Amino acid sequence: MPSPFPGMDPYIEACGRWPGLHLHLIIRCADQLNERLPSQYVATLGERIELIDEQNFRLKNRAIGPDVAILRDPDRTKARNTGPKSSMATLEPHTLPQDVEVLDLPKQPYVEIMYLPEERVVTDIEVLSPSNKRAGSKDRLAYLTKRKNLLVHDVSLVEFDLLLGGERLELQEPLPQGDYFAFVTRSIRPHECDVYNWSVRDPLPTLPIPLRTEDGEVLLDLAAAFVQSYDRGRMHRFLHYGEPILELSETDRIWAAQHVAPD
Asked: 0.90 cut: is pTM over it?
């Protein structure tokens, strides 16, 4: 079942299903690029650890289970307690505080375009996540640091901001009006960023992905990648349409409600 919206479906973000779409979208983008890239290029997947701020971490949202589970059987416990006492020696524990460290930290995928045979990264493609846009978070600081490092090391950078909430990327001049953005920075002009903006009512665009200067660019059909991601992720089974999306303007909320209203 397709999304009822002509472009980005804002209910994916509103219903907390962004992580699932994020992974599918990254994979679909890499697949599409590998179909279109010249033979001396390859699009590969990378991932980095997502940092977690203590105030934003909720254990109930993480799937953490024991390696060994001990289950209590009330009947057997009662029978054992009524039997003869054992003479086995027992030790009393010393109960001490400890830190709990989350070892299975979530990861954020991204796409790298490499030039062969040197395997040199020429373009980095990012789809921003909520943690990248959370003001003051460790993840936002880490992402902005990575962003600066890429721009000073002769790597082109393409960033998709398909989220209504959170902090936008800050450039030296104000961004144009829009609900969603794409930022394309070419390695030959790291001090300039081409900003593409569109509204929730618009279809997702086809955007240029820069390669080496002598090889020009390749086009990425973001709409096709989204449609495949929405379908293969079975997003329609997770989304609960109908609640107003507060990040939208009043007129856009009315427009969105009309799109999800039952026939």
From this structure: no
